[in-house]
Amino acid sequence: MDEHKENIQAEDVNVKMSNAREEEKAKPCSRICPAEESAAQESQSQPNSDFSHPVYKEIALANGHINRMSKDELRLKLAELKLDTRGVKDVMKKRLKSHYKKQKLMQTAAEGGPTDTYYDYICVVDFEATCEEDNPSDFLHEIIEFPMVLINTHNLEIVDSFQEYVKPELNPKLSDFCVKLTGITQKMVDEADPFPAVMQRVVAWLQERELGTKYKYAILTDGAWDMSKFLNIQCRISRIRYPQFAKKWINIRKSYGNFYKVPRTQTKLSTMLEKLGLKYEGRPHSGLDDSRNIARIALRMLQDGCQLRVNERMHAGQLLSVPSSAPMEGAPPPHNPRSRD
Q1: Among 270, 273, 305, which Cα is nearest to 153's?
Q2: Which Gene3D superfamilies does the UniProt entry name for this protein (predicted)?
């Protein structure tokens, strides 16, 4: 529901984005050159990094050289190193810088490299929900597809997936627009279980994979809508409490924009894929296919040296930013949400 989500106004469900934008603001220092500043910012995003180590001076100088390379020079160098040559110029720069930084840190036995991640697994979620072509301001979206795609951050592969359709309660009949957009038919939702039953199986699926107990994990979404709007509304409709394990997540649009230094207007799913040299696989607006394609973007970002981390959260029904200075932590062990009193 990528484009359709763009038209949803957050105030309809009384969720407000905090003014805090710590993770989106660079912190320039007049004492260092732009290349050194870039290396400093990248190093500060890593846990336990020490920018005073002389290796970061070498990395800063290398970054300056890479910044002056042409697109053809970047592609030739990447090919020489047997790295992916796809993507726009800025993406290739990031890839080459990440490779060099990782090699230098390994050589100096620094703790952790730029492609290391705090989480063992990242779970991608992209709901499909009931909708009209022109949603009225008071329209309550109900989740009709609950997909999850599991990424192993150590071998950088999609290792598992979950998908179930959901029977809507308030508006059981899907609009023609919704059927055409999502490919979800009336028969599919009529034969599905209500949301609370599907949520129980989601929790069981996460528990079986020992997420939050044996392994650290985080939820990842394409934008803020899935958790702050769709899940928030659905839990109220289904009279269950918002699940603890979904209260914090990685908004990949923010992560992508900050990492590749592009404006928010260039962070739609189709645009991110295009800029990374990837093509959409599957049917657009299928929740499972969208989740898989979002996962492909996340994998490419990890390969390019991005440390994906939680950057948004829900608190008292409001959407808030999580600053990059906040300590890293995984999602809690999943449990079935309690009923509302």
Answers
A1: 305
A2: Ribonuclease H-like superfamily/Ribonuclease H, SAP domain
Question: Which residue bears the tokens 């290349």?
Answer: 35
Phi, psi for residue 221 in degrees, rounded to 5: -130, 165
The mean pLDDT value of the chain amounts to 84
Residues 32 and 14 in one domain: no
Asked which of 107, 125, 158 is the last residue of a domain, the reply is 107
Q: Are 288 and 149 in contact (CB under 8 A)?
A: yes
Q: How high is the pLDDT of residue 203?
A: 98
- Strands (E) in the chain, as ranges, are 121-125, 128-129, 143-152, 157-165, 217-221, 248-251, 312-315, 318-321
Residue 262, classified by CB atoms within 10 Å of its CB into exposed (0-12), middle (13-18) or buried (19+), is middle
Q: What residues contact residue 62 under an 8 Å CB cut-off, 6+ apart? A: 97, 100, 101, 104
Mean pLDDT across the stretch 321-334?
93
For residue 133, give the nearest of 268, 7, 286 by alpha carbon.
7
The catalytic residue among 4, 99, 141, 285 is: 285
Instruction: Considering the candidates 128, 145, 164, 312, report the single residue annotated as catalytic.
Output: 128
Q: Give yes or no: residues 125 and 225 share one domain.
A: yes
- Is 285 noted as a catalytic residue in this protein? yes
Residues 6+ apart with CB under 8 A from 204: none
Mean local confidence (pLDDT), 40-58 = 52
Over the stretch 119-136, which tens digit does the pLDDT of each residue have? 999 999 999 999 999 888
Query: What domain range is 58 assigned to?
Result: 25-107
| Single pTM value for the model | 0.74
pLDDT at 286 over 60: yes
